[in-house]
Each structure stands twice: as structure tokens, then as C-alpha cells.
Amino acid sequence: MNYILTTENLTKTYGKKDAAKDINIHIREGEIYGLIGRNGAGKTTVMRMISGLSRPTSGSYKIHGEHKNGVGVLIESPGIYKNMSAKENLRLKCIAMGCDSDEYIDGLLKTVGLEDTGKKNAGSFSLGMRQRLGIALALVGDPKMIVLDEPINGLDPQGIVEVRQTLEKLKEEKGITIMISSHILDELGKLADSYGIIHQGELIDEFSNDSLSQRCGEYVSIKTDNNEKAIEIIKSRGFDDVSTDRDGFIRVEKAITETAEINKALVNSGIGVSEIYIKNLSLEDYYLSITGGGSNG
């Protein structure tokens, strides 16, 4: 597996409290990695450590390959001068990074969709425009990976779409790896290729879109009086992906259009079927189910 960043037992302790404990993250090159967790779960702590903004108490992280400019960062609010234009803000950082040219700066502005802002002060930008300027600042120096902490938090629907389109463009056209956290899990589900769920300072699950269907998506849920025999019958009809969940319901994948036939086969075999329905489990549903519910962040 071609990883761009991995962590090994990454830990940050404040006093006697572990803000992040034994975090093992694996981010593949060229993907968008969504970090999910409530406020205070440890997301920002992890992001600050892998961005070099905070020193781990123990453990380590490694950036793989030749990425001389390290990781670009947008954590919390973008550090912009409100009385300056987007181009002037970028020029300041470009001077510091040794890449100060009009062509380079104009390219960054075009990448994030701010090429037509002219001399307009950043202080008069919408929140979405300021976030995109923050992303442009994170891109100065051409890092192969950027870390974005809640970049769509507080945006209106239009702003969310604009930031999403910007991130998709960075991935598809520039090949940039993106680590992003977000409260808006439905929106994150449209973007991310892989996910990590952090809860109370610990990474409790990590999975890719390839395995997301095992946790989310549509499936047939069945409650019977004899699950063992029911599963045999369902499998005999050509459905191989059959399991039992923690509540004792049978879960059948890839059988959405066959619900009536499955029910008929079970009843004809003398099995009592008390419930059978199509269940749609979202990323947010799955997140809440493994973290005990409540508000996410």
C-alpha cells in the first residue's frame, strides 16, 4: 500500500489527560481522508501533531516519499489580513516560502476559484471565500498533502459546494492528498475515500470506501424465530453476504429487490418472520452507533 503518512502510537498528554492516545492512522497518497469525531475527541490534537504544530508526548508520525515542503495546514480560522486582497495575502506567504511570482500566485488563486477578486479586501469576503483563501495559503510551496480542520464549518450551502469542488479539483487535477475533519458527515461522505473515527482520544475504526458498504448503505434486515436455519435458506438462494447484527437481526447485502422472494422462502420453510425491511444506514448512523449516540463533531 502506497501511504503518504502513517502514525505509530501517536500520543499527546496534557497533565494526566490523554488528548490523543496510541493513534495509528494510515493515509494513502492521492486520497481524501476524513477524520470524524465529536468536539474534544482529539481530532485537532492529531492534526496539529502531524502538521508539526505540536510535539507528540510519545509515538511518532512519518511522511513517506520525497515531499520536501511537508504538509500544508488550515487549522481553525485562516490566518489572513482582512485589509489586504487575496493576492496580497498570498504574496506575503510566497515571499516567506521563496516562490514569489505573479504567475505562481495567480495560479493559486485560479485553483481555489478566487482569480476574479481583484483588489477586494479579504475582510469583505464571504466565509466560504475566506476558507478557500485559507486553502490557497496552505498550498503555498506545493505540499503533496494538506490538513484541513473543519473547513466547511459554518458555511452556507453554496459555500459548502464551492469548498467541496475546490477539494475535488485539488485531488483530481493536482494529485494532492487531503486530510479533512468535518461536523457535516453527509458532506464528508461525498468527498472522502477513507475514514478514521476518533472517540475520547482513541482511533476506534479506520476504513476505506471499499469497505464502507459493510458499515453503511442499504441492506435487507430480517428478524426471525430461527436465525440459524433462516441464514441457511437465504444462502441457498444465492445470497452469500449474510450476517447477524448485534441486535439479532439478519443482514442481507445486495438483496434490495429480492425482499419479497426471501420472505416467501422463509415462510414456506416454516420460519416465523416478524420483521423484514430495507434499512438505509448512513455514515452518520454508523458513527453514532459505535460512539454511543449524541452530537457529533
Element order, helices and strands?
EEEEHEEHHHEHEHEEHEHEEHEH
What is the percentage of strand-forming residues? 25-35%
The Rg value, from CA coordinates, equals 23 Å
Query: In terms of structural class, how would the helical and strand content be classed?
Result: alpha/beta
Biggest sheet: strand arrangement: 6-7-8-4-9-10
Number of helices: 10
Distance between the termini: 30 Å
Major sheet: size, sense and barrel closure? Answer: 6 strands, mixed
Oligomer: single chain
The CATH topology of the largest domain comes to Rossmann fold
Mean pLDDT: 90
Identify low-pLDDT runs: none
Helix content: 25-40%
Shape: elongated
Number of domains: 2
Write out the CATH superfamily name of the largest domain. Answer: P-loop containing nucleotide triphosphate hydrolases
Number of strands: 14
Given this structure, which CATH class of the largest domain is correct?
Alpha Beta
The CATH architecture name of the largest domain reads 3-Layer(aba) Sandwich
Task: Please give a quick description of this structure.
The chain is α/β, with parallel strands linked by helices. The chain has helices spanning 43-50, 86-97, 102-111, 127-139, 157-174, 185-191, 209-212, 227-236, 259-268, 283-291, and strands at 3-14, 17-23, 26-28, 32-36, 58-63, 71-74, 145-149, 177-181, 194-199, 202-208, 217-224, 242-244, 250-252, 273-281.
